[in-house]
Amino acid sequence: MTYVVWIPFLPLIASIITLLFGRWYIQKRAHWLPCIAVFGSFLLAMKTLIAVIHGARASFDLYSWIIADTFKVGVGFQVDPLSAMMMAMVTCLSFLIHVYSIGYMEDDPGYYRFFAYISLFTFSMLMLVSGNNFLQLFFGWEAVGLCSYLLIGFWYQKKSAADAAKKAFIVNRFGDFGFALGVFLVFLTFGTVYYQPVFEHVHEVAHETIRLFGHDVLLVTLMAVLLFCGSLGKSAQFPLHVWLPDAMEGPTPVSALIHAATMVTAGVFLVCRCHEIFELSNVAMAVVAAAGTFTCFMAATIAPTQFDIKRVIAYSTLSQLGYMFMACGVGAFAAGMFHLFTHAYFKALLFLGAGSVMHAMHHAPDPTDMRYMGGLKKYMPETFWTFLIASLSISGVPGLAGFFSKDEILWSAFASVYPWGKLVWFVGTLVAGLTAFYSFRVVFMTFFGEFRGREVLHGHEPHESPKVMTIPLMILAVGAVVTGWLGVPSALGGSNHFAHFMEPVLGHPHFHLSPALEEHEHLVELLLMGVSTVVGLLGIYIAYVVYCQRPELQRLLPEKCPKLYRYLYRKWYWDEIYLYSIIKPTLFLARGVIQGVLDSACIEGTVNGIPDLIRRGGEGLRKLQNGVVNTYALIMATGAAVVLLLIYLF
Amino acid sequence: MEVALRMSDFPLLSLIIWLPVVGSVILLALPRSDRLIRWFSLVVALADLAVTLPLFWEFDKGFVGMQFVERHPWIKSWGISYFLGVDGISVLFILLSALITVLCILISWEAVTEKVKEFHIALLLTAAAMMGVFCSLDLFLFYLFWEAMLIPMYLIIGIWGGPKRLYATIKFFLYTLVGSVLMLVGIIFLYLKAGTFNILEIMKLGLPYHFQFWLFWAFFAAFAVKVPMWPVHTWLPDAHTEAPTAGSVILAGILIKMGAYGFLRFSLSFFPLAAKAMMFPMLMLSVIAIIYGGIICLAQDDLKRLIAYSSVSHMGFVTLGIFSLNSNAMEGAILQMLNHGIVTGALFMCVGVVYERTHTRAIKDYGGLATVMPIYAAFFMVFTLASIGLPGTNGFIGEFLILLGTFCSKKWAAAFAASGVIIGAGYMLWLYQRVFCQDINPKVAGLRDVKMREVFALVPMLILVLWIGCYPTPFLGFMHESVRALLDHVNGAGAPAAPISEIIKEGLHVVLPS
Predict the structure, then answer these.
(1) Strand pairing report for B66-75 and B80-86
(2) Which one of A254, A393, A405, B512 is CB 3.0 to 4.6 Å from A342, fit for a cystine?
């Protein structure tokens, strides 16, 4: 199966050529090579996927990357259901978004740069998912971070974009710090960083403990929590979630590919890949579930207060990633991956639809502000219909992709053996309603009612986007419906192909229901589905009432509870909290304490002080040798007198 | 422990060391034509680089001991000999020194316009002395080269440097000299004990711990200043800032590596007991250097000063790797010495490129350079990423191996040191943003992008960054045997017998007889 190697390397080659020659030679044709390369990767990935469905497996090293004394690691590839699924999904979405970008990025002066970066990203992401060891995972991890940095700061002339790029990189570094320590701990424990031996032997160290700040901690707990730090950063979960909303400064196709469909799900992928480690530690599972649940809820409360269409979708991404971690935290890894898979399609579609709207509004000073939109349905019907499908899907309307994956998570949480399962289920169902509400708030504010942007557009009419943009939208819309059909639960008469396919890698969740419920397992599952569907539809209905029928209700929250509204509108003040608790103190430490006091006063003071002391001492002594004979005689006489006095006394 | 020697039929190392010296003597005789002098020095440096290349492929990576050995008695009555040889620890630095000399001549092509002849003589002499330090297997010879290097370096900073160059040179000279004098006392003591200056003989000496303890600190003084370790680092920002570009590149690329090399070659192999006993303070100082050097970078508003302080942080990683006494970490440390030379050298060259055009080093005078000089911005980006240790660049391999090895030997040290990686990303990306992103500063509008000559100087560094990052095996391959032998030597020395308090008490008794 060595052809797998070409799946990541085709986009890399395209990226390097485009980057080197784009500026002078390729210029406006820069999209051809990356598109063809990614399409080639997609075909190879499909071939791999089919082979894996037929039972093929592989794990091999391309070459030895680092050989130190006892540490050896290669650039290696692992082909199994998890990596094959991820590769197929990444290449598919990447290709569609490449094509979409041809239209979206047209006339941008950095056209070639965009395509070079985005196919470099595709390479990095594929390296991340296809590796057979932790270090290659780490390579992909940092490389996607770099591409994310480059693409968020794509319009680097804008201060906000450059700030957001830097913020994304540095916040992620906090996560990577833990991740790296986790990898060190893996190496220290197992003497290798290859997945296979690590996961085979991890059960043997399940009860080993390690001393940490005077407490005995389970080794696997520490390992899992450290690795999970990386997930927190990359998948933007609380407390490292602050970079993702700002990352919307990048071009919209980037938001769709990197900050919704692929890169941000790497954290979920990591947890699923290492589920053998996580499963051994209840503490780690609880941490995963808690981070997911909290982020899921928090983001869903912020999203309805934002007016920037991309930011709303970004918060929705945070919330949906929270769902995936909730699934992992109750041991339903396959359900998490399933949601990752369906989410990639409908969320990419939402972003690209938003991009299409922004394309229509690009004469406005702020083309993302929903307050200047409205009624776009009749100007851009294709965008509207595809966007509507995505919104229905994310709201969990039965029959669409989001419905199946979300209900799988809620059911797994409800039936889980973990004690926090019921809480996860409750929050998940509540957020399902909020999700439907804010998703349809976007739909109603953007596409329904009267167009409110006449004066900001200065006479330009909004228009539908070109075919090269709308066709990818339609393909994704198909994905946003049918991907869910891969995982129809048995309660609905399906056979959940997705979970069966993943079972060799991810195992399957342990359920524990009370005996009374167990008898009617399917009935309970159907009932839960009914509940979440009703909650979702209710959310849509409230959005309809508030944003279409009685707009005066929109002012209800800001006027009745201005404090709560401001709290949500300012995103729970996390940016401010970090500014005053981390950034400012660090800069003060740098400028005031270390530069001002330690380095210049203490160290430099000592270094310059000693020669100074010697000089001053010398100057003092010099005064004695003033060349006046009278003084010398006086000193001599005084000295002699003192000596005589001493002799006389003793 | 007996160290095997493989004699060389051809005096390759001598040729490498003395070729630049011969070149500088010929330079003396040449007429004062700047063009001729530049081309001649470039040819000499390139020839020297060509002569070092056989080291790269003739070196036997499986051989434990010294290779390319030359040995001739010199001052017989004192047991001093002209004794050269390289092993896996030193060989790469000779290659790096030769490369950096070539690049320094290229990068000074238009920057140095006064006293061109003298500048190139100083540069070639520095190169010769640098390589001499890495080749010497005789302590006397080593000390000679070690001190000889200061003189041309002093002149380079003092004559061709910035406005505050005199203060910087005196500081640089005094700092280094104070350290070296203590080392000289140690060397004389070792000579009296061993009766020879032969480094390999002294390694076998096996001094008692209470001697090793004091000697360790005597040598430490010299090496810590050179590295520089916290808190004796303050000469570095001044020297770097005031030095001409070539001076900064040599300082960062080679000179400060000598301190770390000294730790490996002398401190560990002469005083293994003390090195083991002093592990904690050494790791502590390294961690402080990493974090302190990183945080202080956030307060800098001068391009060169920022990169100089980042050196303190990066060299902290090197000393961390050396003193964690773990084979992986030590290989990482040696590689990181090389990496730091490449990356920081390249960053200083990059700063030199814009300094030539704008004559300002203040960060606030820049902004939006990515629009004005896109190729330059791309080079700087790659070196920035290497500096913050992104996988795929050389910085990652070194830092990762150091942290991995340190984690296996002392977890706390690795955990603290790893936080330096976060700070590193902070100051470097902030620097990049302020210089390259956002609106174009009127002071840099219309600057010319890099010229062909500058590209030639930067491309070798770029290739090395990516080569070591993606396929470090050819470089790490040099080290395995030598590092293993060194660690075996350290571990085979037994455990220190007495607690430190007693050693100090005993030392005080010697000084104060009552």
Answers:
(1) antiparallel
(2) A405
Amino acid identity, position B198: N
pTM: 0.91
Q: Name the DSSP letter for residue A487.
A: G
Q: What type of residue is A519?
A: E
pLDDT of residue A217: 86
Query: A11-38 in b/e burial notation, b at 16+ Cβ within 10 A?
Result: bbebbebbbeebbeebeeebbebbbebb
> Which A residues in the span 529-588 are in contact with B, Cβ-Cβ below 8 Å?
586-587
**Whether the Cβ atoms of residue B211 and residue B218 lie closer than 8 Å to each other:** no
3-state secondary structure B50-112: HHHHHHHHHCCCCCCCEEEEEEEEEEHHHCEEEEEEECCCCHHHHHHHHHHHHHHHHHCCCCC
In angstroms, the CA A328 to CA A335 distance is: 8
Residues of A in contact with B398 (CB under 8 A): none
Ordered DSSP codes for A27-38: GGGTTHHHHHHH
User: What is the C-alpha to C-alpha distance for residues A410 and A393, in angstroms, rounded to an integer?
Assistant: 16
Residues of A within 8 A of B370 (CB-CB) are 156
* Predicted confidence (pLDDT) at residue B117 exceeds the cutoff of 90: no
C-alpha to C-alpha distance for B438 and B375, rounded to whole angstroms:
17
- pLDDT at residue B1 above 60? no
- Of the partner residues B300, B437, B480, the one whose CB lies closest to the CB of residue A153: B437
Which ipTM was obtained for this model?
A: 0.89
Within 10 angstroms of residue B9's Cβ, the number of other Cβ atoms is 6
- Per-residue pLDDT of A55-86, as tens digits, reads 888 899 988 898 888 888 989 999 999 999 99
d(CA A481, CA A401): 5
How is residue A420 annotated by DSSP?
Answer: T
SS3 state of residue A61: strand
Per-residue pLDDT tens for A391-450? 999 998 888 998 999 998 998 898 888 888 889 999 999 999 999 999 999 999 888 888
Distance in Å from the first CA to the final CA of chain A: 103
Cis bond leading into A239, ω under 30°?
A: yes
Tell me the CA distances in angstroms from A627 to A51, A623, A634, A640, one per residue in order. Answer: 102, 9, 13, 20
CB B395 within 8 A of CB B388: yes
Taking CA atoms, A282 is separated from A289, A298, A331, A418, A567, in Å, by 10, 24, 10, 8, 33
Are A139 and B391 inside 8 Å of each other by CB? yes
Partners of A156 on chain B (C-beta within 8 Å) are 370, 436-438
- Helix (H) or strand (E) holding A315, with range, is helix A309-329
Closest CA in chain B for residue A146: B390
The verdict on a CB contact (< 8 Å) between B370 and A156 is yes
Q: Which of A118, A104, A100, A84 is nearest to A7 (CA)?
A: A84
Task: pLDDT band for A315, please (50, 70, 90 cuts).
Answer: very high
Question: Is B436 within 8 Å of A156 when comparing Cβ atoms?
Answer: yes
Q: Which of A23, A143, A166 sits opposite B392 (nearest CB)?
A: A143
Split at pLDDT 50, 70, 90, the class of B513 is: low
Q: Within an 8 Å CB–CB cutoff, is residue B434 touching chain A?
A: no
Query: Does residue A23 or residue B23 have the better pLDDT?
Result: B23
In whole angstroms, how far apart are CA A601 and each of B60, B164, B165, B239?
51, 19, 21, 19
Q: Are B128 and B120 in contact (CB under 8 A)?
A: no
The contacts of residue B436 (CB under 8 Å, 6+ apart) are A156, B366, B368, B369, B370, B377, B380, B381
φ/ψ of residue A361, rounded to 5: -100, 15
DSSP run (H or E) holding A196? helix A195-201
